[in-house]
Design a protein that fits this description.
Blueprint (H helix, E strand, L loop, with lengths): L8 E4 L6 E10 L3 H8 L9 E6 L5 E10 L9 E9 L1 H15 L16 E2 L4 H8 L5 H12 L3 H11 L2 H25 L7 H4 L2 H27 L1 E7 L5 H9 L17 E7 L2 E7 L9 H15 L3 E7 L6 H17 L6 E6 L26 E4 L8 H12 L13 H21 L6 H19 L5 H9 L6
Parallel strand pairs: 1-6, 7-9, 7-10, 10-11, 11-12
Antiparallel strand pairs: 1-2, 2-5, 3-4, 4-5, 8-9
Helix pairs in contact: 1-2, 4-5, 6-8, 6-14, 8-13, 13-14
Length: 484
């Protein structure tokens, strides 16, 4: 534990701005003298006491509730004092300053020592970090607190709440316990090679490993859904100029975000907006029209468009139904399609969106059903007809986007997760695959098998914080608000 983790800390725990109630929170060891200095009396544990909050001269700053939570029965696992006052910024700043002042003042019973030496203002996320370090919560639960605060939809809030109560952590601990048991069998076989009993066959190690694989697959699927709820996917709208890309962005967002004109090349740079479909965030990017251009500014915009396309999780390839009969338009569309095939990974889905059904000329219908793409590892190609102006077909497009994102319509069991959780579970899967290969050969290399199982356990431990670096903790908790 770093030295700063032992310092007592104080911060305003409520959001900036005016409100009915504001809270100043103090956490540290041995808060008794500070409690008496601030409140003029001792407080009964976990019982709200209404009293005046006074400055050093005895003048009342405000009146409110004081609550004292002795360790270890507190949010951080340390002594915690909360002062609940009126939520004016000036009042809370005065209370914060008074806490720092009182901490540095001499104790009445012992003038040679101060009330609470070393009290300082907390860094972002430091209260929750201390809760983690004092084993009140694990790392996945700590992250769920930030996700619950940041949740912008009901689905995301409910999923974060499940993670906070430990649903995700319990599944990780279940996998860990099964791994530990399997490791024990392998280590026993390594430690006692002279024994006639084959520990692995007798204990059905292969069956245990297969069960681990099955359980891990279920956890991975739910974690991917949870990560999707939190982080969403990047969807890039691409196509020739005047195909209706900006109109589609505006229609999906329900707001006039991008300029729409009949002039080709209006969009010179990307325009991005995050929309939500059934609680899933989609980061939609409108890009410059793809064509050959002599305009230097437009060429820069087109180059940036290709950069966005190459980094997309899904691409909406927009076509203009009103011009599809023109040979030059068809040739230009074919060139864009060929460039996309070269630049976009085969696993990234491309949706052919045929826009302007309201202005379509009388020509044969465009295919609008999903068709399988050829080649293993290639994302299915599908088409949809829409009108960005009238809204026709947008519901179908939204459903397709959800399917591409991998969202399921019944997310009741989903818990919030992060990209690092999904990546850690992928590492676990990879190590278990290697372990399975070792276990299924006639003469398995048990030392390699034991090592793969150890690495799988370490990957699981990174999720809950059993194996984590100080750098990782710094990144995670620095994203919290001050006071939490």
């Amino acid at each position: 534990m770093l030295a700063r983790h032992t310092d007592p800390v104080v911060a305003i725990a409520t959001a900036p701005g005016r409100g009915a109630v504001g809270i100043v929170r103090v956490s540290g060891k041995g808060l008794g003298p500070l409690v008496h200095a601030l409140c003029g009396r001792d407080l009964r544990p976990r019982e709200a006491t209404y009293l005046p909050f006074r400055d050093a001269a005895g003048q009342a700053i405000d009146q409110g509730l004081a609550l004292y939570f002795p360790a270890p029965h507190s949010y951080t696992g340390e002594d915690v004092l909360e002062l609940q006052a009126h939520g004016g910024p000036v009042v809370l700043q005065l209370l914060l300053a008074r806490c720092l002042q009182a901490a540095a003042s001499p104790q009445p019973a012992d003038p040679s020592s101060v009330c609470l030496p070393g009290l300082r203002v907390a860094q972002p996320g430091e209260f929750t970090e201390r809760a983690f370090l004092n084993d009140k919560i694990d790392l996945a639960q700590a992250e769920a607190i930030a996700d619950l605060i940041d949740a912008s939809t009901e689905a995301a809030a409910r999923s974060a709440s499940r993670s906070l109560t430990g649903a995700f952590s319990q599944e990780i601990h279940g996998l860990r316990d099964a791994l530990i048991h399997l490791r024990m069998l392998v280590e026993a076989t390594l430690d006692f090679p002279e024994e006639d009993i084959d520990f692995l066959e007798k204990a059905d190690a292969k069956g245990q490993l297969d069960h681990l694989h099955h359980t891990l697959a279920q956890v991975r699927q739910r974690a991917q859904q949870g990560a999707l709820l939190r982080e969403g996917i990047k969807v890039v709208i691409a196509g020739q100029p005047n195909a209706g890309k900006s109109s589609l962005l505006n229609a999906l967002a329900g707001a006039e975000l991008a300029i729409v004109t009949p002039i080709a090349g209006t969009t010179r740079d990307k325009v991005q907006q995050t929309i939500q479909i059934e609680g899933v965030p989609l980061h939609v990017v409108d890009t410059a029209g793809l064509r050959e251009s002599e305009d230097e500014v437009e060429r820069i915009g087109i180059a940036r468009a290709w950069d966005e396309i190459e980094g997309a999780d899904a691409v909406l390839f927009l076509h203009d139904l009103s011009r599809r009969h023109l040979p030059e338009y068809q040739a230009a569309d074919a060139m864009v399609a060929a460039s996309m095939q070269h630049k976009i990974p085969a696993s990234v889905p491309v949706i052919d969106v045929w826009n302007k059904t309201d202005a379509e000329v009388a020509l044969p219908d465009v295919q609008s059903e999903e068709s399988d793409a050829s080649g293993q590892g290639t994302a299915p190609r599908c088409s949809v007809r829409i009108s960005a102006r009238t809204g026709y077909g947008l519901d179908v497009l939204r459903r397709i986007l959800l399917e591409i994102a991998g969202w399921q319509s019944a997310p009741d069991g989903v818990y919030i997760a992060r990209a690092r959780h999904v990546q850690a579970l992928e590492k676990v899967h990879s190590h278990l695959e290697q372990a399975s290969m070792q276990l299924h050969v006639p003469s398995p290399a048990l030392d390699l098998l034991a090592e793969e199982l150890r690495l799988a356990q370490n990957a699981l431990g990174a999720i809950t914080g059993e194996f984590s670096s100080d750098d990782l903790l710094g990144v995670i908790f620095s994203s919290f608000c001050i006071g939490k």
